[in-house]
Amino acid sequence: MKRNNYYNMDMNMGNVGGMNDMNFCPDCPTQTIYDPPIVQYENYYHPQLVNVVQNIETVKQHHCCPVYKQHFTHTEKNVMVSSMKRAKRAKASANKRSKK
Hints:
Structural class: mainly alpha
Mean pLDDT: 77
Low-confidence stretches: 6-13
Number of strands: 0
Shape: elongated
Strand content: under 5%
Order of helices and strands: H
């Protein structure tokens, strides 16, 4: 909708009735313009009982875990050691010590 605005008109063209007074205000009819409505919401909350049924299922899982249990075996043997071999070793080690 166009609005008539007498105050922005060129003064040469806007003289009404030959009056040059700057305070002149013509008798313009009042116009009413309606803007679109603004929607405002007010929220109110009320308790509502809701039954929730939750089923729980138990699953028993069985696992094999290694558990180590030590077992010891024992054996015996008899070995004959000759004193002759022992004497040769003793002499050889004595000779090595003296060389140093």
